[in-house]
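User: We ran a pulldown and think these components assemble together. Before we commit to crystallization trials, I'd like a predicted model of the whole complex to look at. Sequences follow.
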Amino acid sequence: MKSNPYLSSSIFLLIAFILSLAIGSVFISPKELWNILRGAGDETFVFIIWQIRLPRTILIALSGAALSGSGAAYQGLFRNPLADPFLIGVASGAGLGAVIAMSIQWPYSFWGLMAIPMAAFLAALLTVFIVYFLARVGQTIPTTNLILAGVAFSSFATSLTSFLMLRSTSEVRRALGWLLGGASQAGWAAILAILPYLIIGLGILLISGHALNLLQFGDDQAQQLGLNVTRTKTILLIAASLATAAAVAFSGIIGFIGLIVPHLTRLWLGPDYRRLIPLSVIGGASALIISDVLARIVLAPQEIPVGIVTALAGAPFFLWVLRRAKNQGYW
Amino acid sequence: MLKIQNLSASYNGRQVLREISFDVKNGEVLALIGPNGAGKSTIIRAASGVIPSTGHIHTNGDDFQSLTPLQRARYLAVVPQAISLPPAFTVWETVLMGRTPYLGFLGHASALDEELARQALSRVNALAFSERRVGELSGGERQRVLLARALCQSTPILLLDEPTAHLDLQYQVSLLELIRELARSENLAVLIALHDLNLASHYADRVALLVGGHLKAVGAPREVLTAELISDAYCLPVQIVAHPFLDVPLVLPDTK
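Assistant: Here's a predicted model for the assembly, 587 residues in total across the polymer chains.
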């Protein structure tokens, strides 16, 4: 497994993907799936797969990849094992941005749809800078400061979001389910709308592994080794926020994926960000797909928001990492 | 060859270096000495470009201040104090980071990079623990790893910021011997900030005495480590005695 982590995690992703297509209110066997993907099969099933499950699974996979990849990047940037798009407030900030864009009620067109991730991105970026400056002490950002500032800002953004939703029309109020994390808005249009943000954001993160490695030595050493620290950090913050915003725009606020997956990857293969980022991306996709499958089956036929599943698993994990970080210093 | 001319730097509005000028020749070890806060580390930080400064820092024409960090890292490598290193990287990974100024787009190390890292590790006698994590090493081992990383950078100039701090005597001596030998064999210009005056006297070719951001004296240990200059700089009466078997001065506090 260790000899080719890319292969093993890709196989895992494929299995998760097939499970997600097969499992739901109706079970569709892998054999039938194969027929449908080749263009044959029962008409109802064809509709379920092409119009519901496939776009939903892809959206969930992309969101998981984005949250986990940006989580790994935030951890490297802040040199802090607890940085997660949700815990540092960026996800809630992006959610607020998305809700503001929705409540303006752009016409439901492709460009109207594109504006939602854009607003989420701008709000995410603003959040990063606010939280960063609130948490900073001199040159460093103590772990607890970062999380406290993130959680405080997160509550603030969430309250504003709730306020906006309560005073708005039913159209936006439907977004409440979305905000807890769920792919109820899934559709091919949503996938197309976030794809540009995602490709740019994750693309930059994927080629920045070595820079993130250098940043682990602190700004001085990174620069003495040849890195343009200020420029690199700015680019990475923007890229991670783009990826987070892309995920939040249509999948809502899903916590802890960006914490759990990079952390387990780090325990598995060590701290090298050149591997950590791509494997977090693949692992994040698998982990969120599995969470979404669970969200569909635990209370079937009713669905629960996937954010609840990730929080149920993630909050205890967070406490475990917090204790570890205290006892052993930074990983 | 490292040439520093009229170097000044400020920190939070306070001027911490004033018009410093000196050279470090190839093959030479120059020790920066002076009381705490005199500006020893600041010179190293200014020369390596992590804090802004005025004046000139250059080698045969190229002014470092106008270079990008990547270009500068091909001229000048820094050995920091080994206090806060990311513990989870292995020694091998850490040393390979020294190749950063030469790596390609994705930070992939070539066979040559790996060969140079191996050579650097063997120079500092650290090959045996190259697969260990840095967090598991002793202070002396860590300092050697950082020296190997700097050597791996293949620069003509080496700056070291109190590399012997937190090391016990045995490691202090072996590290400084190694540094002096490297300066000779690789023809490096070595600038090293040192706390211990007697180690500076023993291992440096020349010594530069800094006090309150001013350069008080530069020269052979015998010229700089005089009772008058040192008493004045450290506000403490001292006596200078001859080393029992080496031709260098030793500094002893003149107190009861």
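Chain B touches chain A at residues 45, 48-50, 68-70, 72-74, 76-78, 80, 84-90, 93, 97-98, 100-101, 103, 105-107, 135, 153 (CB under 8 Å). That may be worth checking against your pulldown data before setting up trials.

User: Thanks, that helps.
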